[in-house]
Write a structure and sequence with these properties.
Elements: H1 26-41, E1 46-48, E2 58-61, E3 73-84, E4 87-91, E5 101-105, E6 108-114, E7 120-126, H2 127-140, H3 151-166
The structure holds nickel (II) ion.
Nickel (II) ion (NI) binds near residues 93 and 95.
Length: about 170
């Protein structure tokens, strides 16, 4: 099923998600499949479970936007184990639609995670993949990309969102 994307303002987005302890269950495989379907439907390149209202440490990434199945990535209980260099580029989030801001992040990161079957693996990504790995891992720690921009810019976005909420254009 396609889940609706939870928008900024919902507490689940700013709450650290819970570790997965049971792998290879029908429920987990279904959730991962639904996360990919929901991410593609929303035209995103990454999605974390809290963004569909599920407070669990699961994220999916596909920087090819569905063009290359080999790039589908499932990250369960991910941890950043190495980071190197720096890159600055515009970043957005499905939970903050229509906003984009430049964010400085590591240019190369290595993540250790489990797949849905419970097999541990490491992946190293650069540039856009590094950005996605960091952005999605942040989500599972209850952190949004706007925590990496200046307080001034963050307040401006919050004020705009408050206006949208009052106009019932943000839910
Ligand atoms: Ni996001």
């Amino acid at each position: 099923m396609i889940y609706p994307i939870v928008k900024y303002g919902q507490p689940v987005l700013e709450t650290p998600a819970l570790e997965i302890k049971e792998f290879d269950t029908e429920e987990l495989h279904q959730l991962v499949d639904d996360m990919f379907i929901s991410m593609y439907a929303a035209k995103g390149v990454g999605l974390a479970a809290p963004q569909i209202g599920v407070g669990k440490r699961i994220a999916v990434i596909d920087i090819s936007s569905g063009e290359d199945p080999a790039q589908k990535l499932v990250l369960i209980n991910p941890e950043i184990v190495d980071r190197d260099g720096s890159q600055t580029s515009e970043e957005g989030c499905l939970s903050l639609p229509s906003f984009r801001e430049p964010v400085t992040r590591a240019n190369k990161v290595t993540v250790r995670a489990f797949d849905a079957k419970g097999t541990q693996f490491e992946i190293t990504g650069e540039e856009l993949l590094a950005r996605a790995l960091l952005h999605e891992t942040d989500h599972l720690n209850g952190q949004l990309y706007i925590s990496h921009i200046s307080p001034l810019k963050r307040d401006l976005i919050r004020r705009k969102i408050r206006k949208l909420q009052k106009a019932n254009e943000w839910s």
